[in-house]
Amino acid sequence: MRIVRHHEYGPSKVLVTEEAERPGYGPEDVLVRAEAIGVDHADVQRRLGTFPLGPPPLPYCPSTDVAGTVVAVGDRVGDFTPGQRVVVWKARNAYAEYVAAPAAHLLPLPEGLDAAEATLLGSTGRVAVHLLRTARVAEGETVLVHAGAGAIGHIAVQAARALGAARVIATAGSPAKRDFARSLGADAAVDHRDPDWPERVAEAAGPGGVDVVLDGVGGRQLLDDVKVLAPYGRLVFYGASGGDTAQPAIPALSLMGMRQVMGFSMPTLLGSRPAEAEEGVRLLLGFVRDGSVRPVIHARVPLAEAARAHDLLEERRSMGRVVLVP
Ligand SMILES: NC(=O)c1ccc[n+]([C@@H]2O[C@H](COP(=O)([O-])OP(=O)(O)OC[C@H]3O[C@@H](n4cnc5c(N)ncnc54)[C@H](OP(=O)(O)O)[C@@H]3O)[C@@H](O)[C@H]2O)c1
């Protein structure tokens, strides 16, 4: 089978297509033929060697969400059968024609979604829902979603509304991305590259201010996030797509208005509170089924052109999800 990986850190051209054996699978695993493979921003940072939690061991093939068809199951797998279409949460060695994963990491592919859209039910869409749950978004609140046109961001903009937010403000780095965020239901979209973005967000929020901020960009922006929070507001930090791996220290005094700063990590949630993680999947599926969340695919790129897919994310041109198609 074909697999895409990199043997060094560097620009997208380090991604190479190679031949490899199909992955083996154990008694509790499922072998899946991939139809669509999600491309995450973290894949780009790992390729560059700048991932905030450290560079991956080489050679490296990303772990990401895959949708496809079951071709074989291990002896102890009862829930899935060959021929069934499924979504695999964070499959290892995922930029490949086949992936093997524990059955516990699979969901049946829901009717009404194509494989590319369904990849968002893996990690990416779940992160968006759990960020909002971590922030305890309540009916009538105002939510600010940074990078609201990104893969996680565009789901978060829609899910915030579905969870009862009265006002959703997105930030995005280009006019097209801001139009896109508004088309998904954001009441306002602000350019976070504008140094005055906190004022623009405050104007859009009105007198009640911002109750919740979701920030996966990080860096100095976090300091301004705290400033735009209303009393009792909550900031959830979940990534550093802006590239600042150091991250600023948030002054304790800025939290005196009963503000809270929280971190979110999907692996931690899954490891420590699996039941809560399950609830997030059910919630997201419900939103997709009732049409309140619409996954958007920006581009379907052939697997062998993975470098082009990475360029879309690295050059900040993607709106919604980019997938690879074997
Ligand atoms: N905590 C967790 O469990 C968890 C799980 C999955 C992913 N993540 C993190 O979530 C974040 C978003 O992931 P995603 O897959 O949704 O990414 P994405 O679709 O690429 O969105 C990231 C956005 O960040 C913005 N950005 C700001 N500075 C950037 C820069 N220097 N280079 C590239 N983009 C920049 C861009 O939006 P604008 O152009 O609008 O600025 C871009 O669209 C990443 O930091 C990722 O590592 C965290």
Automatic annotation (TrEMBL):
<dbReference type="Pfam" id="PF00107">
    <property type="entry name" value="ADH_zinc_N"/>
</dbReference>
<dbReference type="GO" id="GO:0016491">
    <property type="term" value="F:oxidoreductase activity"/>
</dbReference>
<dbReference type="Pfam" id="PF08240">
    <property type="entry name" value="ADH_N"/>
</dbReference>
<dbReference type="InterPro" id="IPR013149">
    <property type="entry name" value="ADH-like_C"/>
</dbReference>
<dbReference type="InterPro" id="IPR036291">
    <property type="entry name" value="NAD(P)-bd_dom_sf"/>
</dbReference>
<protein>
    <submittedName>
        <fullName>Zinc-binding dehydrogenase</fullName>
    </submittedName>
</protein>
<dbReference type="InterPro" id="IPR020843">
    <property type="entry name" value="ER"/>
</dbReference>
<feature type="domain" description="Enoyl reductase (ER)">
    <location>
        <begin position="10"/>
        <end position="324"/>
    </location>
</feature>
<dbReference type="InterPro" id="IPR051397">
    <property type="entry name" value="Zn-ADH-like_protein"/>
</dbReference>
<dbReference type="InterPro" id="IPR013154">
    <property type="entry name" value="ADH-like_N"/>
</dbReference>
<dbReference type="InterPro" id="IPR011032">
    <property type="entry name" value="GroES-like_sf"/>
</dbReference>
